[in-house]
Every structure is written in C-alpha cells, then in structure tokens.
Amino acid sequence: MRELHLGDKTVPAIGLGTWHMGNSTATRAKEIKAIQAGIDAGATVIDTAEMYGNGRSESLVGEAIANIDREKLFLIDKVLPSNASADRMSHSLDTSLKLLGTDYVDLYLYHWRGAVPLSETVETLQSLQQQGKIKHWGVSNFDLPDMKELLALPGGDQVAANEDLYNLGSRGIEYSLLPWQRKQGIPLIAYTPVAAGDERGQLINNPAVKEVAEAHQATPWQILLAWAIRDGSTLAIPQSGDPKHAVDNIKAASLTLNEDDLAKIDKAFPKPTSKQPLDIR
C-alpha cells in the first residue's frame, strides 16, 4: 500500500473525506458504517472541517470513531477564515474537538484565505500547537504566491501540508505549485480526487481510463485515485457514504500505474502548459 509522511506519522496515501456527509438522518447510519469500513480496510486519515454541515460532519466522524483507538487515527480538521483570528480560533477548535470526541487533532488546516492577516493566523496556529490541541498545522486552497508568502513569515516553514483540489480533470497545480511543494517537501492533500458531477462522469467513462482499469482489474474510480497519489507525496481523500465503495477506494492505494498507463492517461488528459487559476470548489 502506497504511503506518505504527514506530520510525524507515516499514513496510507488514501484517506477518508467527509464533505457533504452527516447532513441527513436517513443516511447517517450508512455513512458511519462507511467510515468504519474504510478504517477496517486500512485507512487511518479522516478529513473533516467545521464548515461541513456546520459541524454535522465532525459529529458524524466523532460517532464513527468513538470505539476506535484514537492513537491509530490521523484526524484532519479545518478552521473557517472568519474564525482564523487570535480571539476566535481557540474557541472554534474547542467546539470541533468536542464534536469529534477527542482532545487533539493531528492536523489543523486554515481552510482558505480571508481577512485575518496571515501572520496572525500562523501565530495562533503555533500557539494551539504548543498547547497540544493540534499536533501539526497546515493550509488549504493556497496557490503558489500564497505558499511563498506563508514560508516568508516567522514559523511559516512549519506548514505540514497544503490541501487543494486535484484530479485528472483539474491538473493546473502541476504547472508550478506542485513542483515547488515537492522541492520544499510539503505534502499535497488532494480533495475531490475523483472530480464531481458531469466532470466525474467524463473521467470514469474515458476510454483511456477504462483501458488502464481493465489492465489492472480495477475500477475507473480506483485508477483515478492511483493516478492522484502516483508521486508518493500526495494524500487523496475521496468521500463515500457507501461502505463497499469506501473499501474499494482504500484498495486503490495498492495500485501502481506503470509508464505506459501514465502515457495513455496523459494523452487523454494533457498536463498543463501554462499557469492556471487555482481550482476551488
């Protein structure tokens, strides 16, 4: 199973995303089973955010992991820009911790840039880290200028990861951001790694993706995930409220695409040849 170093732990390269989960009482039990099935299949990373359902996703995760050894899990949570200030972040984190049923998160991300000065946010994140409420901190939806600004700040070089949208249909960060992060040793967390809506359908039904999937006796979904984590420094966090699908996603971490596979995929979905606006959903 492909792994990567995240914070102070080595984790499987495919985790569990929870965006859009926890919003319906009708699907709650199945979604909890999906998270637990993913953990049973080898996933250790669970990604959530206070924004997701205004805490309902965090509550769902908390219920799903209530009887699981906390030390075996790597929890990622995110703070909203409106709560990323010195006077609000601690309270925001405490609320998230209560919903999760834990006294710390492994990685706390600044969800996207807002009006609070970046230096204030970084200083506050460092303070929470010193208090032990978070093991590591990072950012999300940061492009290359944002990352360079971050690393120029005192303590900014302690950033543990950047979470951006990244999938076969959205390769823009490959032009400059991703190569720079690799040089700096900053892992990428890829959200929406199998795309969404009509774009997802275009990816999983693409002849090249289907051909590679058949060669590996895998599903097109699994090929998209194996492609996303191919560099060894990317964590993909697909979301699924279905237990079987969640397990299939985790199994994709055991797939290795060869040069011919990657060439076929690149021909169908070419690499970017110029700087693209950061894709944010």
The order of strands across the largest sheet is 3-4-5-6-7-8-9-10
Q: Which architecture does the CATH hierarchy give at level 2?
A: Alpha-Beta Barrel
Query: Per CATH, what is the topology?
Result: TIM Barrel
Q: What is the distance, rounded to the nearest whole angstrom, between the alpha carbons of the first and last residues?
A: 29 Å
Note the beta-strand portion.
Answer: 15-25%
Q: CATH superfamily name?
A: NADP-dependent oxidoreductase domain
Percent range for helical residues?
25-40%
Largest sheet: 8 strands, parallel
Give the radius of gyration. Answer: 18 Å
Order of helices and strands: EEEHEHEHEHEHEHEHHHEHH
Helical element count? 11
Give an overview of the whole structure.
The structure is a single chain. Helix content is 39%, strand content 15%. It is α/β, with parallel strands linked by helices and 281 residues long. The strands form two sheets. An eight-stranded parallel beta sheet has the order 3-4-5-6-7-8-9-10. The longest helix has 14 residues, at 118-131. It is globular, with a radius of gyration of 18 Å. The mean pLDDT is 97. It is an enzyme of class 1 (oxidoreductase).
